[in-house]
Structure formats: structure tokens, C-alpha cells
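Hi all, posting the design record for the shared folder.

TITLE: backbone redesign
STEP: 1 of 1
STRUCTURE INPUT:
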């Protein structure tokens, strides 16, 4: 358990529909609302905002059924609390899972499997007089006995105590076993679907490629295929070889998740990929937690290109860089299909992701078209049993003006893992993937007016790339001229101007094909500037992380230090005066990383 304090280090802004959803939950007239939000909508961010508000009433218990969901929730709640709670406010946060037993926390994330145990549940109830707020992630599981045991003990079945709220979160509120969620919840307070998010640019569109290579599976009037039926039809050497061949032909440059029919199928498919020389790994529910974590980290780092999985990654797994889904698991469940495909729909502007390729190797697309997802989530279509459902009583979002996302802007990659959007007036939004998380800042740096002082404001520093790029999009839309950075601006794809060509020739660079590419080359420091600055930095034992990232920055720094005999500390003082925004970024990152901190202490930074 640890105590976090709201310091307002991040200027986090929720998306318009997220604000609308939180307001709808507040105003919902009954105590057990559901928030239905498709993958990528930010369910955890919205529920964290609601949790921050509810803390004044007492402890908040957040329930999840996977370890990864617990970790993600704590990370995102900490960011939201820091940004949106009253400054100076403190909260004790903790985990209840396995050996972790932080029952005295004000905000606790709890594994359902752990806290449903009588002893753990009693310890939580002994530590708190009442639990006015419960939030259940992936609440379509809420009718299971373990969940119901918790709800019964805390008073959320039957007549709910006045002022108490049980919020359910899900992207797919219907179950294949026909269990009725109305036993646990009163209705939907707010719903936003996949197509809404695709239209708004918060998800990339799926691009389906159907591979008709499986025989023997016939449509069913009720329920789903059994594991034996699925495995017998899909897990054959011929089908697995054709899956690998199709991936090599159409998706070899994409980070990929394969959803398999069984654990054995996952290993058999992985063997085919391995024989083809593709870096591949397998994850499944029985894999030890640490081994699974290491595998997922290697996948995120790009050391593994294909991840064959069974029963693990359908929920709570967020890797925006995934841009291909191999749907090798036949299913008649709309919910399951949408969950699987949703793993590849998150935006990732830093890799220029435009869509998600779905290799549908079992012909699922004809039965479950993605276009039916919105109707399902809004309660306007048939449920998994084929029966017509009554329309959800909640509000349908979004009803607000379309907000541009990070994909709507052109981002310059100014150095490794650093992206910059900068307009003609010197306003900028900067995104950096550091060793300790994503760092997003906005500000202004211009050499046109000497009285125009540089400025920099941090808006996000944390582990979640989706939150980082969401913040970057918000501030790019607010603070930058769209004509300078808008991805669809016509001038960007025109041939370079004569002035651009001449400037590139002076640098000894060949002109590219478009004005945007030329502008990108001309934004970065010149080769001569880099040579001079690296020589100075090396002589003074100054980390290259402080090197200027634009020609204007490099020019300003060189004007301040070139031709002068400066000691290391004097140089750093000049640097902080000339490039205060870069200095603040460096200090922030240093404070999060022990190795960088040690290096910084050696030069007197901290």
C-alpha cells in the first residue's frame, strides 16, 4: 500500500465523450449502472474519474479478474488522481491479490478470485465500516458465483443502501450462457460503440481478409461450437501452414496476435511460425505469471513478432502497436469476436498505424460482421441467444463535435523515440517514449521574437501509450495551427518548394518527394550543428539526451556557448536559460530513472 498526493503534475483532459459518460453515470437514477464502452474508449480512465469523486463518501473497491487489469487500473487511477483531485489531496491505494493484502486502502484494486474468499472479504469489511462504491471491470462476468458472493456481502444485491453505487464496466454486456445481468445491474447509463470511436479517429478501422481454408464447421442455431469441434477442424498441419503463408504474404511487417482454438493449437501454430523463421511465442492461462509477463514484455518490445494465445488476451491487454489479428479461433459469439478484433484497433501514431488487418482464417466474418457491434452494445440487436433485447435505457454517445486524435496530425520523428508536432509560430507538442514511460509536453519555442520566452508544460508522464497519444492529440488540436500539422493538408504532399530544395542542398541533403518530408528534414538540426554540439557535449561529459532536437534550438544554444570557454556547470546554466523547456523535460525523466539520476548527479543536475 502506498499514499499518493495530487500534485497536478499532469494537465490531463478527458475526451468530450468521456466527460459526457461520467456525467451520465452521476445522473443515473438507480444505484447499479453499466458503462458500455468499446475497446479503446478509456473505460478505466472514465471510471477513475468517477472513483476520484466518490472517495469523499468512503473507500472504493475496484474488482477485476486478471492480474494485468489490476496493474493497469492502479497506474491509470494514479495519473487521473494526480491531475483531477484537489491539489494536495491524499489517498491510500493498494492491491488485494495473492500475497498483497492492502485491505485498509482507500482505493483498492482486488482480484475477484482473492477477495471472494471468506477470510479476505471479512478483512476488507472489518477495515471499513461500509463500502459505498464498487466498480467491476469486465462486468459481463458479474453473475458468476464468486462475484455474487462479494456483492451479497457488501449489500449490492436486492435493496442497495442509499448513496451506494455499483458501477459495471464492459465492452460486451451480453453472455453466451444467457445469464441475465439484470440480476446485478439496473441498466445502461451510457454506451459508445466501436463504430463511433472509429468515426472519431480514436480507433483504427479493421481491414478484413478472409481465408477460406477450414472445413467441417457448420452454423448452429443456438450456442457456440464445443472446444472439440473447433480444435478438430482448425488444428491441422495443413491449416496451420496456410495461416503462416497468408501472414507472410500480407502481414509480415505487422505486430500480430493469433487467437487459437486451444492451448495445443497455439503451440502447433507457433511451431509453424518458428519453422518459417518468425520470432514467435505462446501465452495461455496456465502459464506462470512471471513467464507470461516476460513474454508480453518481449512482444511489446518487438522482439516477438507473433503471439499465439489461447484464453488470455481477449480482455485487458493493451498494446496499441498490434496491427494484425489472426482470428484462428472459430466462434459464434459476437462478444468474443469483437473482443479479439478489438485488441488490434487501438491507435498508434508513433508507428504510423492506419488500420488493423484481420486474417479471418475460419470464415467468421460472414457470420459476425463488425458492423453489428454498435447495435449489440446499444441494446438494439439480438443477444447471443438470438432473442431480441429491450433497448438500454442509458444515453448513447457521443453527441459532441468530433475531436481530432493524434492520427489526425503529422508527427516528425526528430530522434529515436521522440515525435514532434510543430506549427509555423513555434508552438509544439512533443511525445517521448522514455525508459520509464511516455512523456507528453506542449509549449512554445521561437527565435523570431527575443522577448518571446520559451515555455513548456507537462501534460502526461506514465506507462500508457494510449493515454499519452490521447493527451498529445488534445493539446495539438487546442494549441497548434491545423494548416501546419494536419495530416490531410494538401500542401504536405506537393513537391518541395524551390526554397526548401536550396536549403537542403546547402546542408548537403537530397530533396525528398514531398514538402512535408522536406519540412521534416529542415526542422532537425543541420549535420554541422550536430557535429559541433556533440563535440561540446562529449568534452563536458553531458548526456546526449540533452541535445537540441530542432535547428532553431541548436542555433540558439550555439549562439549562447560557441567561442566561449565555459566550465561544465557554466554551460549547463546557459543551457537552462536558452532551452528551459528541454531542461525541464530532462529533469523530469531523470527523476524517474535511477541510472539517469546517477548520471545527472555527476554533472550537478539533481
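Okay, here is what came back for every position:
SEQUENCE:
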Amino acid at each position: 500500500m502506498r499514499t499518493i498526493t495530487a500534485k497536478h503534475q499532469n494537465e490531463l483532459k478527458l475526451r468530450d465523450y468521456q466527460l459526457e459518460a461520467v456525467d451520465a453515470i452521476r445522473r443515473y437514477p438507480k444505484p447499479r449502472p453499466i458503462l458500455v464502452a468499446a475497446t479503446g474508449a478509456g473505460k478505466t480512465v472514465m471510471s477513475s474519474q468517477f472513483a476520484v469523486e466518490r472517495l469523499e463518501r468512503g473507500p472504493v473497491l475496484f474488482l477485476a479478474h486478471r492480474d494485468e487489469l489490476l496493474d493497469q487500473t492502479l497506474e491509470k487511477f494514479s495519473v487521473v488522481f494526480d491531475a483531477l483531485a484537489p491539489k494536495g489531496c491524499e489517498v491510500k491505494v493498494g492491491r488485494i491479490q495473492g500475497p498483497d493484502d492492502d485491505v485498509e486502502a482507500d482505493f483498492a484494486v482486488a482480484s475477484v478470485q482473492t477477495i471472494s474468499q471468506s477470510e479476505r472479504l471479512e478483512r476488507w469489511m472489518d477495515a471499513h465500516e461500509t463500502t459505498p462504491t464498487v466498480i467491476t471491470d469486465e462486468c459481463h462476468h458479474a453473475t458468476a458465483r464468486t462475484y455474487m458472493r462479494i456483492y451479497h456481502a457488501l449489500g449490492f444485491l436486492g435493496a442497495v443502501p442509499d448513496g451506494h453505487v455499483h458501477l459495471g464496466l464492459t465492452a460486451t454486456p451480453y453472455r453466451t450462457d444467457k445469464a441475465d445481468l439484470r440480476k446485478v445491474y439496473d441498466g445502461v447509463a451510457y454506451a459508445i460503440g466501436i463504430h463511433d470511436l472509429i468515426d472519431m479517429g480514436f480507433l483504427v478501422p479493421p481491414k478484413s481478409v478472409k481465408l477460406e481454408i477450414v472445413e467441417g464447421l457448420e452454423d448452429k442455431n443456438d450456442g457456440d461450437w464445443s472446444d472439440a469441434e473447433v480444435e478438430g477442424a482448425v488444428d491441422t498441419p495443413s491449416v496451420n501452414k496456410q495461416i503462416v503463408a497468408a501472414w507472410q504474404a500480407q502481414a509480415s511487417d505487422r505486430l500480430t496476435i493469433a487467437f487459437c482454438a486451444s492451448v495445443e493449437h497455439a503451440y502447433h501454430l507457433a511451431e509453424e511460425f518458428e519453422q518459417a523463421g518468425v520470432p514467435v511465442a505462446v501465452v495461455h492461462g496456465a502459464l506462470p505469471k512471471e513467464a507470461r509477463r516476460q513474454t508480453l514484455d518481449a512482444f511489446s518490445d518487438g522482439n516477438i513478432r507473433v503471439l499465439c494465445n489461447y484464453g488470455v488476451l481477449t480482455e485487458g491487454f493493451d498494446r496499441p502497436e498490434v496491427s494484425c489479428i489472426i482470428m484462428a479461433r472459430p466462434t459464434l459469439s459476437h462478444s468474443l469476436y469483437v473482443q479479439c478484433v478489438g485488441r488490434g484497433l487501438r491507435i498508434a501514431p508513433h508507428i504510423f498505424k492506419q488500420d488493423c488487418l484481420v486474417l479471418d482464417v475460419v470464415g467468421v466474418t460472414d457470420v459476425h460482421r463488425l458492423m453489428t457491434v454498435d447495435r449489440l452494445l446499444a441494446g438494439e440487436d439480438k443477444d447471443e441467444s438470438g432473442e431480441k433485447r429491450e433497448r438500454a435505457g442509458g444515453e448513447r454517445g457521443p453527441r459532441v463535435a468530433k475531436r481530432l486524435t493524434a492520427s489526425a496530425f503529422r508527427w516528425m520523428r526528430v530522434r529515436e523515440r521522440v515525435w514532434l508536432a510543430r506549427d509555423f509560430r513555434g508552438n509544439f507538442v512533443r511525445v517521448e517514449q522514455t525508459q520509464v514511460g511516455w512523456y507528453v509536453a506542449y509549449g512554445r519555442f521561437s527565435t523570431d521574437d527575443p522577448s518571446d520566452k520559451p515555455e513548456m508544460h507537462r501534460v502526461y508522464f506514465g506507462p500508457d501509450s494510449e493515454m499519452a497519444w490521447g493527451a498529445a492529440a488534445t493539446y495539438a488540436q487546442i494549441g497548434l495551427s491545423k494548416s501546419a500539422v494536419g495530416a490531410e493538408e494538401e500542401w504536405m504532399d506537393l513537391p518541395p518548394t524551390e526554397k526548401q530544395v536550396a536549403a537542403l542542398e546547402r546542408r548537403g541533403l537530397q530533396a525528398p518527394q514531398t514538402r512535408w518530408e522536406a519540412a521534416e528534414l529542415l526542422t532537425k538540426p543541420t549535420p554541422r550543428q550536430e557535429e559541433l554540439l556533440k563535440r561540446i557535449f562529449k568534452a563536458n561529459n553531458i548526456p546526449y539526451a540533452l541535445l537540441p532536437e530542432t535547428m532553431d534550438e541548436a542555433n540558439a544554444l550555439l549562439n549562447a556557448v560557441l567561442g566561449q570557454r565555459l566550465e561544465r556547470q557554466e554551460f549547463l546554466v546557459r543551457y537552462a536559460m536558452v532551452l528551459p523547456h528541454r531542461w525541464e523535460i530532462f529533469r523530469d525523466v531523470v527523476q524517474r530513472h535511477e541510472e539517469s539520476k546517477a548520471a545527472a548527479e555527476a554533472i550537478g543536475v539533481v
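COMMENT: The mean pLDDT is 83.
Let me know if anyone wants the other runs.
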